[in-house]
TrEMBL record:
It comes from the Eukaryota. This is Uncharacterized protein. The keyword Hydrolase applies. GO terms for molecular function: 3'-5'-DNA exonuclease activity; metal ion binding. InterPro entries: Metal_Hydrolase (IPR032466), TatD-like (IPR001130), TatD-type_Hydrolase (IPR050891). It comes from Cryptosporidium xiaoi. Belongs to the metallo-dependent hydrolases superfamily. TatD-type hydrolase family. SUPFAM superfamilies: Metallo-dependent hydrolases. CDD domains: TatD_DNAse (cd01310). Signal peptide: none annotated. One of its GO terms (cellular component) is cytosol. Keywords: Hydrolase, Metal-binding, Nuclease. It holds the Pfam family TatD_DNase.
Amino acid sequence: MAVSKLANDIKFIDIGSNLTDLMFQGFYNGRRHHNPDLDRVIERAKNGGLEKIIITSGNYEECVQALKICQEYDPEYNFLFTTVGVHPTRTRVNCSKCDEHSKYYMNKLKELIKKNPKRIVAIGEFGLDSERTQFSNMSIQEKYFELQFELLKEQNLPMFLHMRTSFSTQENKGEHNSNSCFLKFTEILNKYKYLWEREKGVVHSFTGSVNELNVILDMGLDIGINGCSLKSVENLSVVSKIPVDRLHIETGLIDLNNEFIDSPWCDIKKTHSSYSYIDTHFPEVSKPAKWIENMLVKGRNEPVKIIQVAQILHKNLNCNLSFNEFSLQVYNNTKRMYFNI
């Protein structure tokens, strides 16, 4: 069963999609279970109201891969775009060998931006992550969060920011709890505000508190929401406070290609408090081995599901807008932020 085309007046932009992941080539946990189906995923997205997709890149190699996908499936530069930056959990591998290597790596990122001005629409994904310090400790993360502001000195691009805090002090480390991580995140952003205050940016996949939300908004940054932002009653209470004109929507976290961890895909599950607010469901096979060409794979998030995020938010924000009006407002927010339209 194919995904039917939505009405023309419903439009979405996915600000954070994982189209570089090997699952779209049929690989799950290192084993191939079906043929590549990225073409079908993109077709479903277009039928589902997606006007543009921004593919999240977490390092140089992933950005190169994203650019290849963009060129193959969107040679006219209308639909697929990407970001360039180093995800905080990848800073130890990609940036910390020595200062000279780090400079070389940043120069490679700068060259990508210069050569691909029509494709690269944001600096990121970059920021801090105290939840997964086993991949890169906080001192390295902080150093290379700051280093990447160099990319903003030469390019007028908005930011695509990562902020993930743990809710307890890291075991056996004792140095960076959630509050100190968020404070460091805002401290670094304020230090370099002169570089980003015009183009601004989005803190994506937001899962923080109301206080953190207000701090981010007061700084002039916007908020990105996906399924990971909508798991609990507490999450829903926080997102209900987001001004509609500061909101963006997305379908996924950076998955790290299973390179480091099986990080969660931001699918909205039946166990999530937000699930009951969903009106639109899609035909799915129960596991990859049962793949059928025109059906989704359970647990593999893809851009067509952006409508579910929008439906949940529309019902929780009390914005006095119809669903179409709400979706158009969010769509226009992202056009202004990442496409200067």
